[in-house]
Amino acid sequence: MSTRGFVAIGKAGGAWDGRYNHSDSYPTWLGEKVFEEAKRWLHNDGHLHGFAQKLLAAHRWEQFIGEGRDGNESDHITPENADWLFMEWGYTIDPDARTMTVIVGCIETPITLTIHDQRPGAPSREWQTERYTSAVVTTVSLDGQKPFWEAVERRGHKLRERLETRYMRNPEHPDLAGLRALPTVEVWN
After folding, report:
1. What are phi and psi of 21, to 5 degrees?
2. Is the pLDDT of residue 69 over 90?
3. For residue 28, how many other CB atoms are within 10 A of its CB?
């Protein structure tokens, strides 16, 4: 199974625009690669504006690094369209602050969503599923030393487990206010 994720430009707690990565998105692989690539751009250019422009011109991270995988608009990930069930890890580069924020996704919550599948040619069906969310694991300086990626990954897994437990025990937790405000029904057509 693939470990999906994204690499984004912007601010982790605010607006960002990311590109999908299909596999090996965990910190000990993709996190380290993104960090090294951003550091290379900083070393060569003295800034991250070229890095940001090249990433946002690509459809996927794989295109950015020259692996040539095709993509499409659905590979553009933003806070508004991120499906945290499938986005296990994210990396947000802030070119102005020269930082990289690591985000862990796939955090299950007790908030449910009813899906009505009415797509042409598909059998009409309905089901309920949980909503998922994300959390910031850490922010590292791109001017600093390479993080110990194994520790970052362990911290992300522990944070996911801790938050899932907290949310299941307290469905009214303030962190879940945004999810509770979303529509409770989604229609696929």
Report:
1. -130, 130
2. no
3. 15
Does residue 103 contact residue 31 with C-beta atoms inside 8 Å?
no
Rounded Cα distance between 88 and 3, Å, is: 6
19 vs 91: CA distance, rounded Å: 10
pLDDT score, position 114: 86
Say which DSSP state 79 is in. T
What distance lies between CA 182 and its chain's CA centroid? 19
Residue type, 67: E
Does the structure show a pLDDT above 60 at 173? yes
Q: How far is it, in rounded angstroms, from Cα 7 to Cα 61?
A: 7
Domains of the chain, by residue range, sit at 5-188
The CA-CA-CA angle for residues 120, 124, 126, to 5°, reads 130
